[in-house]
């Protein structure tokens, strides 16, 4: 299994501390081998980083408290933990990839599935965290060491599902760091609340959010960049890689890697062939597809973006339940959770 399942409970600071302690044994070695960390260190003490901190504290004080707790648990300076969690706001390209697919079945069931692609060093070194909070719905999320949960794949106890795809935006803009924004979405009780947060808060970096919710027939594709947020309702099927494809986001400068272009073309071709009865098996097959030189399932040691698939998640969304299945490059799920209950 390429990840471990861990349950955490408490208030904002306590859960942050627990997340930090979970990552502490690995964090120093992880950062030492990371080219992303090398690129980030010159930003220490920069006025722009201080501005991101100010806006985060003002807009999302409870998420900031979690970040402070994480720094305590990691035994790292808060500035360095903030720096790591702002990597996509400061650098134009990072080793965070991913492919997401979504489908509305003919029986009304909604499906969202996602490949979590990241630093190959992290394979076998990540966690699936199940967090119970005192003053929010609580959530289940894939957790990178030292990174706030939410910017990968996750769902909360209110039935809100979110998967995130990295966007490589060419501009830097003061605002709320994108990873803190993604974490805040997992505190939302409804799709409308999540959309309002994405539209109303000032953005620093850029992400693509695929969103769904128990009891809501909609699936949403949200491309978010500094000063821009495009929210589109998904029809019956959809695929998204690591660059913006919404027509109204065409004016935002971005980097499109060869891998992202190849995966976008391939996933669009796959989902165009889906029928109304498609379910978990087809979603998994799409994300485990290995066709082409730069495939959707990324296992190459010389991947041009320095990314490999670390886990695959399939969410089945009904009227009153959300079922999460997590896979590790095989057809049998390692973990199956009813996210809206407390039972693992």
From TrEMBL:
InterPro entries: C45_proenzyme-like, Peptidase_C45, Peptidase_C45_hydrolase. Transmembrane segments: none annotated. Residues 107-329 form the Peptidase C45 hydrolase domain. PANTHER family: BETA-ALANYL-DOPAMINE_CARCININE HYDROLASE, PEPTIDASE C45. This is Peptidase C45 hydrolase domain-containing protein. It comes from Achromobacter anxifer.
